[in-house]
């Protein structure tokens, strides 16, 4: 039986040329995997995914301790498009992170012990300073650039960094300053697998792929991970779908299921059958650049 890398390579060679809308009947899809660098188990899942040769876009949490391992993996896989997952939250019980600049530099962004708040609502309820937000998010992009990786785009962890018009303006200024794209600013029709029940992820993903049209670039947001004891210990303090009714964490199983879904032969076969062309944000930036961007809803 051929390897997954061989399957995906064959599909890539057989697919349509990279275009924004695709040739007649062709469908364009961006796979964006979020929270890379969050933990070793997440990084190992990302490494397995990119080892197939699939062109994907990975959004790295440069605020997290494990980002350095992610950087080393990504340096070995230059076909991957890298983005900065701009973070103002830290949502896991017992595993928290804070700003790159530290508690003293951005005191309105953190709790009493120097960690980001666990939800968008908690953050918005604070009297946060917009200047501190801009300095911290800039520091996250600067760390990414110093890593030696080519950075193509930014997006926003849990949506907090674009939760108000004033916050969104900061993200737009930072992207413009560094010449970066912004995910969801290229007219993408987006979809997430985050809340899909574990047992239904693969079938729901295949159904989603069958529904795609060539009218726009399609974006699917995935969260991959290995179901290890490290990941299985993390309790999501915000989303009840990530825990049992008794409060036991399910996140590791969710993320393993999303990894399995992307690695499945069924995905490779359907991609070939429907002439689905995988794009990355590097492709979009090369073809249309920042001039092709527009604010969602505008």
Output mean pLDDT: 91
Oligomer: single chain
pLDDT below 50 for ≥5 consecutive residues: which ranges?
1-19
Q: What's the gyration radius in Å?
A: 19 Å
What would the principal axes of the Cα set say about the shape?
A: globular
Distance between the termini: 48 Å
Structural class from helices and strands? alpha/beta
Helix-strand pattern, N to C? HEHEHEEHHEHEEHEHEHHEH
Number of strands: 10
Please characterize this protein's 3D structure:
By secondary structure, the protein is α/β, with parallel strands linked by helices. It contains eleven helices and ten strands. Helix 5 (about 130-145) packs parallel to helix 6 and helix 7 (about 200-210) packs parallel to helix 10. Residues about 1-20 have low confidence and may be disordered.
Topology, element by element:
Elements: H1 4-14, E1 27-36, H2 40-50, E2 57-60, H3 67-75, E3 81-86, E4 92-93, H4 120-125, H5 130-146, E5 151-156, H6 165-178, E6 181-182, E7 189-192, H7 201-211, E8 218-222, H8 229-232, E9 235-236, H9 251-263, H10 265-273, E10 276-279, H11 281-287
Parallel strand pairs: 1-2, 1-8, 1-10, 2-3, 3-5, 5-6, 7-8
Antiparallel strand pairs: 4-9
Helix pairs in contact: 1-10, 2-3, 2-9, 5-6, 7-10
């Amino acid at each position: 039986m051929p390897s997954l890398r061989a399957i995906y390579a064959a599909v890539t060679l057989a697919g349509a040329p990279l275009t924004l809308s695709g040739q007649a009947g062709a469908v364009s899809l961006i796979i964006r995997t979020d929270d890379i660098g969050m933990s070793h188990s997440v990084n190992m899942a990302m490494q397995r995914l990119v080892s197939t040769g699939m062109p994907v876009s990975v959004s790295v949490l440069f605020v997290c301790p494990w980002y350095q391992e992610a950087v080393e993996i990504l340096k070995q896989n230059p076909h991957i498009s890298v983005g900065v997952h701009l973070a103002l939250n830290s949502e896991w019980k017992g595993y928290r992170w804070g700003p790159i600049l530290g508690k003293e530099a951005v005191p309105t962004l953190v709790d009493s012990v120097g960690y980001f708040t666990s939800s968008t609502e908690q953050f918005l309820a604070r009297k946060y300073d917009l200047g501190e937000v801009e300095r911290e998010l800039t520091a996250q992009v600067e760390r990414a650039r110093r890593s030696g990786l080519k950075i193509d785009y930014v997006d926003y962890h849990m949506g907090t960094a674009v939760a108000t018009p004033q916050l969104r303006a900061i993200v737009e200024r930072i992207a413009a300053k560094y010449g970066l794209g912004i995910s969801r600013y290229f007219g993408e029709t987006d979809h997430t697998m985050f809340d899909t029940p574990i047992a239904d992820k693969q079938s729901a993903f295949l159904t989603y792929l069958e529904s795609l049209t060539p009218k726009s670039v399609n974006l699917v947001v995935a969260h991959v991970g290995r179901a290890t004891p490290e990941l299985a210990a993390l309790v999501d303090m915000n989303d009840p779908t990530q825990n049992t009714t008794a409060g036991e964490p399910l996140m590791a199983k969710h993320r393993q299921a999303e990894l399995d879904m992307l690695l499945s032969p069924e995905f490779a076969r359907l991609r070939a059958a429907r002439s689905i062309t995988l794009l990355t944000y590097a492709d979009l930036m090369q073809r249309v650049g920042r001039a092709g961007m527009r604010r969602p809803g505008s």
